[in-house]
Amino acid sequence: MDIIYLIIALAVCISVHEAAHAWVAYKLGDPTAKMAGRVSLNPFRHLDLLGTIMIFIAHFGWGKPVPFNYYNLKHPRRDTALISIAGPISNLLTAFVIAILLKYIQMMPTFLFEALRAVFNLSIILFLFNLLPIAPLDGSKLIGLIIPHSKEDWYQRFLAQGPFYLILLVVFDRLLAGATGFSFLGTFLQYGYELTTILIFLAT
After folding, report:
1. Which of 23, 37, 126, 132 has the fewest CB atoms within 10 Å, i.e. is most exposed?
2. How many domains does the structure of the chain reveal?
3. Which residues contact 52 (CB under 8 A, 6 or more apart)?
4. pLDDT in tens, 80-112
């Protein structure tokens, strides 16, 4: 049954995350994602094979990158950062809404409760994980706000090579955890999850 809840959470969280990217891009003047059908909560439009596999292996992952045309944006660096941060923020808002439901609705079917809890948990994990400053994660685009234009070539290489380094990081972290019992990513996600959960329930 746990796998069913994970699949439900995956479909909801990835769809909300990627649709948020596409919607913000459209609102900022770029119709590319909208024309590609990405302003949608249909999970089949957003699931990425590797990102989905990582959800089942490591309990974090990502969706298919939302396409956008840099040159359609009025303020490319700023707007790229806004499009990127929209995904994690949408996951945080999803967790917040679910926290309200779980806190104030006293009686609900067990299946619904467990499904909502799974969506809540994965929403926070995706929020935290996608803030890491490594491409293709959303945090890498935030770096563009502070990188001087003279370093644009370096920044574009950093973005292009990011997926390779992300896989290396995950593999190294898994090997480290197996050898020492300590995981950088696991520790970050654990304490980040606990802190975020406390703040959400304090705010509801």
Report:
1. 37
2. 1
3. 10, 14, 61
4. 999 999 999 999 999 999 999 999 998 899 999
